[in-house]
Amino acid sequence: MSNASPGQQSRSAPSSQARSAPFLTRLRPARVASYLAQVGPPRGGGEPTESVAALHAHLAETQAPPTLTLAHNTGLAAALRHARYILSENVVTGFAFALFILIVLAALIGPYLLPYDPLASDTASALKAPSAAHWFGTDQLGRDVFSRVVVATRLDFLIAVTSVALVFLMGGLAGVAAGFLGGWTDRVVGRIADTIMAFPLFVLAMGIVAALGNTVENVVLATAIVNFPLYARVARAEANVRREAGFVLAARLSGNGEMRILLAQVLPNIMPIMVVQMSLTMGYAILNAAGLSFIGLGVRPPTAEWGIMVAEGAVFMVSGEWWIALFPGAALMVAVFCFNLLGDGLRDIVDPQRRT
Amino acid sequence: MTQAVPLLDIADLTVEFSTRRGVVRAVEHVDVRVGKGETVGIVGESGSGKSVTSYAVMRILDRAGRIVEGAVRFTGVDVRAASEEEMRDLRGREMSMIFQNPRAALNPIRKVGRQIEDVLKQHSQAGSFALTDKAIEMLDQVRIARPRERYHAYPFELSGGMCQRVVIALALACRPQLLIADEPTTGLDVTTQKTVMDLIVELTRERGMSTILITHDLGLAATYCDRVVVMEKGRVVETAPAREIFTAPSHPYTRKLMRATPRPGASLRDLVPEGDVGLRPGQGASSVCSLPRVRGRGGEGVAENAPSSLAPPPCPSPASGGGDDVAPPFVVRGAMPASSSARTDSAARSHANGGAPLLLVEKLVKEYPRKRLGEGLAKILAPKPAPEPESFRAVDGISFTVARGESVGLVGESGCGKSTTSTMIMRLIDKSDGVIMFDGEDIGAIPAKNFAKLPLRRRIQMVFQDPTDSLNPRFTAARAIADPILRLGAAKGRGEVRARCEALAAQVGLPLPLLDRFPHQLSGGQKARVGIARAIALSPDLVVLDEPTAALDVSVQALVLNLLQDLKESLGMSYLFVSHDLNVVRLLCDRVIVMRAGRIVEQGSTADVLNSPQAQYTRDLLAAVPHPTFA
Fold first, then answer.
1. A21–B105 CB contact, under 8 Å
2. Residue A328 falls within a domain, yes or no?
3. May I ask the CATH architecture of the domain B1-94+177-261?
4. Do A125 and A17 belong together in one domain?
5. A10 and B55 in contact by Cβ < 8 A?
């Protein structure tokens, strides 16, 4: 026997063994008690009766006080426990979550906590290096870079979130429909995705914003369109796998129409993978928006936005005022980094293989 | 047996897995000895630790698992202490393994001949010039016809049985001393199972090898093994020679397994312990009595047709009427064949009554276009039009009927068209030709995609083969059961639907608190019950059961089969039971239809077909069911 195949087998088999192993052996007395509290006394039926009887026996043996932990099985508590387990196993994901919370806080309440008005220019203190008064220094108009970086979080975050939500609605739904219905729907969605993929994506985004008009809304739309193929393809692949699944057949037998099966049965099942996808493309969306601003599309000065700030600061790099471009650039990098790490972490959390 | 120096000595083995819920002991203090040339069977239900034991022997446990206690000695080598290098040398050359799913064990993108060469090369069993000849010789030894041709085949080009033969060839290529076969025939048809098992036994005997056969099938183990080790929950409960274990099992768990295994001469109620039947209120004691009740409802003239011993209602015999521990099993067993023949009578009677059958299938055909490799390319390249695409008849003109209240078994091996037939009857796919009449309506004429929302939909329901696959992982049990009620049922409003769900759960013996759980929080048997509850939610007239117990352990299967029988009796449904397992069909069905290659080879009452089969194919099927001759 070659070495590869036993290895593969062994990886999957014992875990399934552990899953299907008589769960009694795994239960602590307190768990048994809470299980009993939910299941109640033995009642009619085959093996549930047996297991309950066995549980009683087990309980009698261990003499555990019957404590009630009803929250034990509610969805939220279970989800939290699961998240905690993943985080404890993967410190990097925990770090990404902390970073994510920081970004969200900065976007939500950051503007109210600022030391300076991000738009107020003060030529007397222009181009000051970072100091205790101005943590990130000041720019050519004397505006506080720190305040501008924090304020820009909201705009950049908003652009990313709305464009990702939009592309999920367009690409995700189109992809699920293509994968589940097949035929013409599949062909049309597939060709649209191919067409978009045929362009260099950033150039396409530039073109869209240039053609539709230089507004934030169009930046959002362009970012969404550019991401469409990614979502459509992932959703299509996931839906296609479930097209002939037993539960879909069962839903047909229950009198569900195809559209209802698509939306109520198939879509919820591919949501986890879509959430991962969304998290991963958030970083790209932020980059895209900043990139468009950098070349002068979308957001316009004097609005605080990371891309514009980098573009403005780039001029001063040569003369030694590095902080103007560096800090917004670093913020951009941290945000993208955070979303990418988060995507990896979420993938671990939704991966059923990890739910042992 | 060579008791002095066993080839493999597993002593006091304990294996633990560290999971997020703490440490799980998968195997506890297991002692197994395998002598030279001996065949030992390890039998147990899922979760009994039988596979983990064998993985520990090969030391291929995954990272979470480790041997915490005990020793595994193989030809004097301490497997636990051996280095990874030594183990790599042992695996494949001295001991090898056959896995459950042959397709997964073979590399899909490598020719099978090459894969055999890989093993030979790994253990330098042959010079590079002789490799190909050696590989072909191995293929020949596992009875693969035209080995020189098959050397170049990819796994997907071979059938399941053929793939398993290749895996056997791989395992035996280096002439190991010990072969571990982990459920080698699960998922294969009975006739294939027989040939594969015969092959393993013959080859290992020829070479004087020892074999460990891991299986959940006590009959299979008893047929092919010298000794049988029975495991339950990580412990060995009984070790005895095969004959002894089969004729006089001493441990209660072994007895329970034996009892739960469907076999000729046993009735449905024999499969579950008497105590269990007694536990079910309104099912145990009355289940025997409910037979006459159904007959009474079925029509008049009960007394004339029923055997005289069964004539006095409400209970057929005082002995079975008790239905508790007091009644010795043989009394019950004596009573059941009589009542099962009564069931056959009731079916025959409804024919005689002239009532139109519930389901009438006539000359049903399903054709699939046969796709050929590179057809598209050929179409582009070839100047002349491509030849007429051949079609493949999955179902080739079959006709049968199902009467009201009757259960009909549709039996055949994989690929015989039984599932295609059942999905056509379910109106999930369209027929190519023929007639499907349901209660006088030509449902075959209604396109499958329009059928979902018709009121007729609720009268034909189905229980699926894989209880896990057929439940939406994101729906709770209650939501799954409620689905047909919400779409097609009469119940309106949350409370009413919930009440109906709870009533159904009670009917199928699913504890109510489990209703709010998700499928992954339920056991296989519980999931099967959810699937059944969903199928009967709309009180259908016909339920198609597509191997509803194939994925379950025998003891759970016994309970589910009994449940199905009880439900049929209390709700008066008809069953079309699709299965490959003749012993299961024997238990539940009044009539049997045997299919092969899309055609019906034989049909008739269960007793006739299974006791005096006319067609050779039926005889082959029956003969292939592993059953030890000494029993």
1. no
2. yes
3. 3-Layer(aba) Sandwich (3.40)
4. no
5. yes
Q: Is there a domain that residue A78 lies in?
A: no
Do A183 and A42 fall within a single domain? no
Q: What integer pLDDT is reported at residue B591 of this predicted model? A: 92
Phi, psi of A68 (to 5 degrees): -100, 125
A31 with A96, same domain? no
In a domain, A308, yes or no: yes
Partnered with residue B398 across adjacent β-strands are B364
Cα–Cα distance measured from residue A316 to residue A321, given in angstroms and rounded to the nearest whole number:
5
Q: B14, B18, B20: best mutation site toward chain A, by most A Cβ within 10 Å?
A: B20
* pLDDT tens-place string over residues B435-459: 998 988 888 888 888 888 788 888 8
Q: Are residues A243 and A124 in the same domain?
A: yes
Give a yes or no: residue A79 inside a domain: no
A53 with A101, same domain: the answer is no
What pLDDT score does B630 carry?
53
Q: In this structure, are A35 and A126 located in the same domain?
A: no
Are the beta carbons of A136 and A327 closer than 8 angstroms?
yes
Single out the residue of B339, B179, B349 nearest to residue B269, CA to CA: B339
> What are the structural domain ranges in chain B?
1-94+177-261, 105-175, 268-346, 359-472+542-624
Nearest Cβ partner for B61 among A10, A52, A352: A10
Minimal Cβ distance to B509: which of A46, A256, A268: A46
Cβ contact (<8 Å) for A44 and B22?
A: no
Of B211, B187, B214, the C-alpha closest to B199 is B211
Going by pLDDT thresholds of 50, 70 and 90, the confidence category of residue A178 is: very high
User: Between A46 and B587, whose confidence is greater?
Assistant: B587
What is the reported pLDDT for A173? 92
Q: Which of A21-30, A212-221, B160-169 has the lowest mean pLDDT?
A: A21-30
Residues A130 and A254 in one domain: yes
pLDDT digits (tens, 9 = 90+) for A286-324: 888 888 888 888 787 788 888 888 888 888 888 888 888
Give me chain A's average pLDDT, please: 76
- Residues in chain B with CB shorter than 8 Å from the CB of A28 are 22
Instruction: Give me the pLDDT at residue A354, please.
Output: 53
Q: What is the mean pLDDT of each run of 10 residues along chain B (631 residues)?
A: 71 85 84 90 86 88 84 86 86 85 86 89 77 88 85 86 88 88 83 86 88 88 90 90 85 86 78 55 34 34 36 37 35 36 42 69 85 55 55 86 91 85 89 89 85 85 88 89 87 85 90 87 86 91 88 84 90 90 86 90 89 89 76 44
Number of domains forming the structure of chain A: 2
The closest CB to that of B47, out of A9, A21, A42, belongs to A21
The whole-number average pLDDT for the span A120-132 is 78
Fold category of B359-472+542-624 in CATH: Rossmann fold (3.40.50)
Q: Which amino acid is at A126?
A: A
Distance CA A213, CA B495 (A): 54
> CA–CA separation, B576 vs B174, rounded Å?
48
- Say whether A44 and B282 touch across the interface (CB within 8 A): yes
Q: Is the distance from CB of B133 to CB of B113 less than 8 angstroms?
A: no
CATH assignment at residue A346? 1.10.3720.10
Identify the closest residue of chain A to B536 by CA–CA distance. A254
Q: Cβ separation of B513 and A38 shorter than 8 Å? A: yes
User: Does A155 lie in the same domain as A40?
Assistant: no
Residue among A4, A44, A254 minimizing CB distance to B281: A44
* Residue span of the structural domain in which A43 resides: 4-72
The yes-or-no answer to whether B1-94+177-261 and B359-472+542-624 have a common fold is: yes
Query: A with B: how many residue pairs have Cβ under 8 Å apart?
Result: 202
- Give me the amino acid identity at A221: L
* 3-state class (DSSP) for residue A117: coil
A50 vs B410, higher pLDDT: B410
In chain B, what residues touch A26 (CB-CB under 8 Å)? 19, 21-22, 24
Residue A211, chain B, CB below 8 Å: the answer is: no
Count Cβ neighbours within 10 Å for each residue of A214-233 and write b for 16 or more, e otherwise.
Answer: eebebbbbbbbbbbbbbbbb
Decide if B260 contacts B272 (C-beta within 8 A).
Answer: yes
The first and second tokens of residue B592, run together, are 């049997």
CB of A353 within 8 Å of a chain B CB? The answer is no
